[in-house]
Design goal:
With about 60 residues, the chain is of the alpha+beta class. The protein has a single domain, classed as Ribosomal protein L30/L7 (Ribosomal Protein L30, Chain: A). The protein is about 30% helix and about 25% strand. The protein has a three-stranded antiparallel β-sheet with strand order 2-1-3, with no helix packed on it.
Length: about 60
């Protein structure tokens, strides 16, 4: 069974450090209030942890 996470970008990337913008792009988020479904892996969890103040996560 492959667990999934629904990740939504709720804060703009304008004015954020390039590293944060790169992580948002790496997660596949292309715009504000857009949602993507991602596999629940340690790599994805690490990316989410770095920018969790910009995201909303649902199981």
């Amino acid at each position: 069974m492959n667990a999934k996470l629904q990740v939504t970008l709720v804060k703009s990337t304008i004015g954020k450090p390039k590293k944060h913008r790169d992580i948002v792009a790496g997660l596949g988020l292309r715009g504000l209030n857009k949602t993507v479904e991602l596999s629940d892996t340690p790599e994805i969890r690490g990316m989410i942890a770095k920018i969790n103040h910009m995201l909303k996560i649902a199981p």
